[in-house]
Amino acid sequence: MTEEEIIDLVQRTLFSIAPEFEGEKIEPGSAFRDQFEIDSMDFLNFIIAMHEATGVDIPEVDYPDLETLEGCVGYFQKKHQAPKSELEGE
């Protein structure tokens, strides 16, 4: 996935979880929870939706990596470049 594809996916996913914020700019380094006042359940729904959209397993230990737009871009770029065995946690 390219950076632009990841950003687009994150935006669509985030705004589907919190539609009242659609159209607002996402600050790359700021936590989604702080920017959009989403709660932990909304964030979990975001994680689940990103897993479903990308097919990438996201263990709970990695959740902090996905709290910002920058973090999501780095995480999914890394996961899509990793050999299949790394994606499966082997």
Describe this structure in words.
The chain is an all-alpha fold. It has a single domain (3-87), classed as ACP-like (Non-ribosomal Peptide Synthetase Peptidyl Carrier Protein, Chain A), CATH 1.10.1200. 58% of the residues lie in helices and 0% in strands. The chain has helices at 3-17, 32-36, 40-54, 69-81, 84-87.
Topology overview:
Layout: H1 3-17, H2 32-36, H3 40-54, H4 69-81, H5 84-87
CATH class: Mainly Alpha
Q: Report the average pLDDT across residues.
A: 89
Range of helix content: 55-70%
Oligomerization status of the protein chains:
single chain
Low-confidence stretches: 85-90
SSE succession: HHHHH
Number of helices: 5
Instruction: Please name the fourth-level CATH homologous superfamily.
Output: ACP-like
> Per CATH, which architecture?
Orthogonal Bundle
Number of domains: 1
Q: State which percent range the strand residues make up.
A: under 5%
Apparent shape: globular
Q: Structural class, please?
A: mainly alpha
Biggest beta-sheet profile? none
* First and last CA, distance: 22 Å
Radius of gyration: 13 Å
**CATH overall fold name:** Non-ribosomal Peptide Synthetase Peptidyl Carrier Protein, Chain A
Number of strands: 0
Short structural description:
By secondary structure, the protein is an all-alpha fold. The protein has one domain: Orthogonal Bundle (Non-ribosomal Peptide Synthetase Peptidyl Carrier Protein, Chain A). It has helices at 3-17, 32-36, 40-54, 69-81, 84-87.
Structural key phrases:
Non-ribosomal Peptide Synthetase Peptidyl Carrier Protein, Chain A; mainly alpha; globular; disordered C terminus; about 90 residues
